Amino acid sequence: RCPTVMAPSTQQRRFSQASANTKQRAQMLIAKALETRVNGINPDECDAGSEDAFFVADLGDVYRQHMRWKVNLPRIEPFYAVKCNGDPKVLELLASLGTGFDCASKAEIEQVLGMGIDPQRIIYANPCKTPSYVRWVAESGVRMLTFDNAEELYKIKRFYPTAQCVLRISTDDSKALCRLSLKYGCPLDDTAKLLALAKELELDVIGVSFHVGSGSEDPSAFITAVEDARTVFDQAAEIGFEFNLLDVGGGYGTHNFEEIAGGLGPAVDKNFPPSVRVIAEPGRYYVATAFTLATHIIARRTVQDEMKGDLPSYMLYQNDGVYGNFSNIIFDHQNPVAKVLKDQNGFYYNSQPENTRLTEYSIWGPTCDGIDCITKSCYLPAVLDDGDWLYYTDMGAYSKCSATKFNGFSNDHDTVYVVSEPGAKALLDM
Ligand code: PLP
């Protein structure tokens, strides 16, 4: 089914014009932050590790994504999915902007509560929760939590019988980057039975949630899920529940957000009266493009391939890999693209060296594991060696949060913050 594509409103057009101007400012700020940090490091003399990979995060980008959300989905309240990137400044900004938070564990709930956030602004959106966490959360003031099976209902009855329960239903996530409905979500065939059990247990079920899969490429999946949620609302009414919450989950990409919103917003309005509160759990959408990662080349190996003539290619080893911030290659199906940040001739951001001869590289992380590979083949317009720097854009989602300390390498890299939006600056304590 094709979603109805609506013509952009005046507000939407103004918004995209404004963000084009500020995006230019953002590029300048990011370039300056990268250059200042890199130029302050002399790899021949610096303390061991001070040339570690680092992020530059533009909080203005997060702010713009929030404004883009408000313009396109004004009825739907975002609850940022902390799991995607728990950066404290991102959380601080989103808290000031008034979003809620989707937390998956005790630690995430503690992080958000520790910022002084009202527990009512949190949903504990993990359908299969650790029992001791449920006991703990009952004392924390957080009320909303999700479930999708009978055993979880018995657990909630035992440890938190006054919780506001939200039934997560399964979705068609076949076109998503990361599928979730293989693991979570109650099939529509079972929802009536599950709701009847909840009634018998005298639990308070307040609504329905779904997640169409992370990195969804399929706007129609949202529409189908909204219609399925409507069916479950009707079932619940027959059983005697008065549902008042719809949670349309996460899964929003950055490049086709307007297309998703153009289908989702009208579907919500068509199926649910204004009395129903509608929330969402976007993660990737808020942070993916806000973070740029700079990596240092620590070693190089020359590869002579006689089949390819006399031009050598090289294996480059950088100080961050799939066990670190490039965990997004393994867990999030990403293909980060290397660009030259600095070589012996100068500094490049948003431009590349004017060397028309391209050199072939494979790029590897620092650990001793053969799987630690960023790319098997790429071409860059420079002959790079150890001491040079690379950078990667769009490294904000599911990167640092799933990095390990394998081989003793750090998983806590510095973040240099820039704020390309005056509106965001005014909200931040920095
Ligand atoms: N909500 C839940 C329950 C999730 O499991 C996830 C991601 O796994 C999200 C929200 C965030 O999804 P995304 O980053 O695709 O928006």
UniProtKB/TrEMBL annotation:
Keywords: Cytoplasm, Decarboxylase, Lyase, Polyamine biosynthesis, Pyridoxal phosphate. Homodimer. Only the dimer is catalytically active, as the active sites are constructed of residues from both monomers. Catalyzes the first and rate-limiting step of polyamine biosynthesis that converts ornithine into putrescine, which is the precursor for the polyamines, spermidine and spermine. Polyamines are essential for cell proliferation and are implicated in cellular processes, ranging from DNA replication to apoptosis. Pathway: Amine and polyamine biosynthesis; putrescine biosynthesis via L-ornithine pathway; putrescine from L-ornithine: step 1/1. It is found in: Cytoplasm. It is an enzyme of class 4 (lyase). PANTHER family: ARGININE/DIAMINOPIMELATE/ORNITHINE DECARBOXYLASE, ORNITHINE DECARBOXYLASE 1-RELATED. GO terms for molecular function: ornithine decarboxylase activity. Its main location: cytoplasm. The active site is at 368 (proton donor). The keyword Lyase applies. It comes from the Eukaryota. InterPro entries: Ala_racemase/Decarboxylase_C (IPR009006), De-COase2_N (IPR022644), De-COase2_pyr-phos_BS (IPR022653), Orn/DAP/Arg_de-COase (IPR000183), Orn_de-COase (IPR002433), PLP-binding_barrel (IPR029066). This is Ornithine decarboxylase. The lineage of its organism: Eukaryota, Fungi, Dikarya, Ascomycota, Pezizomycotina. One of its GO terms (biological process) is putrescine biosynthetic process from arginine, via ornithine. Its EC number is 4.1.1.17. The modification N6-(pyridoxal phosphate)lysine is found at residue 83. GO terms for cellular component: cytoplasm. It comes from Pyronema omphalodes (strain CBS 100304) (Pyronema confluens). The keyword Cell membrane does not apply.
